[in-house]
Design brief:
CATH superfamily: Isochorismatase-like
Structural class: alpha/beta
Largest sheet: 6 strands, parallel
Shape: globular
Strand content: 15-25%
Number of strands: 8
Number of helices: 6
Order of helices and strands: EHEHHEHEHEEHEE
Length: 199
């Protein structure tokens, strides 16, 4: 049997850098979501600007999203629910909804790597550096960052593209990721996308 180097045609891109958008497709209709939403909306606007920059230079975007406990979930259904049902999260999803060219990974737990195709996809893309964005910094972004660090990916976590329920806890988590996971943590607008470093 011949091996297909391009995931059977499903991963045509090659890039040493990948943009990860974690749990940005979200209705924000859960308990205590209102507080998180207040932090998430400004971050979503910054993520959207960063994604425009990465799209322009050919860096692939990978949406990594919770399946909300429903194994029949898919991204089209999630996007449709958030927008068509006029949920609290609608403005964020309208800003960040995936394009046809973007990659989509559903996760059953907090980490984007646990029981998903993410690592396989990243290997086929040739990614070495991951730019992590999304919600929330102290749970799903952190767990995904730890999984990435254990697999020897270089991490960039823009400080204005990751939020948590508690702003002070979010700052502590960003400091932790910089100290322990060796992540680059500065604002998105100073990322040099050619080198995937901060200017």
């Amino acid at each position: 049997m011949n091996k297909h180097p391009d995931l059977h045609g499903n991963a045509p891109d090659k890039s040493t850098i990948a943009l990860l958008l974690i749990d940005v497709i979200n209705d924000f209709e859960f308990e205590a979501a209102e507080t998180l939403f207040k932090h998430a909306l400004p971050a979503a606007k910054t993520i959207a600007l960063l994604k425009k920059r990465t799209d322009k230079v050919g860096i692939p975007a990978i949406y990594i999203n919770d399946n909300f406990g429903k194994w029949r979930s898919d991204f089209r259904t999630l996007v449709s629910h958030c927008i068509d049902d006029d949920t609290r999260g609608r403005p964020i999803v309208e800003l960040l909804k995936p394009r046809d060219e973007d990659y989509l990974v559903l996760k059953p737990k907090q980490s984007g790597f646990y029981s998903t195709t993410l690592d396989l996809l990243l290997k086929h893309l040739g990614a070495k550096t991951l730019i992590l964005t999304g919600f929330t910094g102290d749970i799903c972004v952190l767990f995904t960052a730890i999984g990435a660090h254990l697999r020897d990916y270089h991490l960039i976590v823009p400080t204005d593209c990751v939020v948590s329920q508690d702003a002070r806890e979010n700052e502590r988590i960003l400091n932790y990721m910089e100290r322990v996971l060796e992540a680059g943590t500065r604002p998105a607008n100073v990322i040099d996308l050619k080198l995937a470093t901060y200017r």
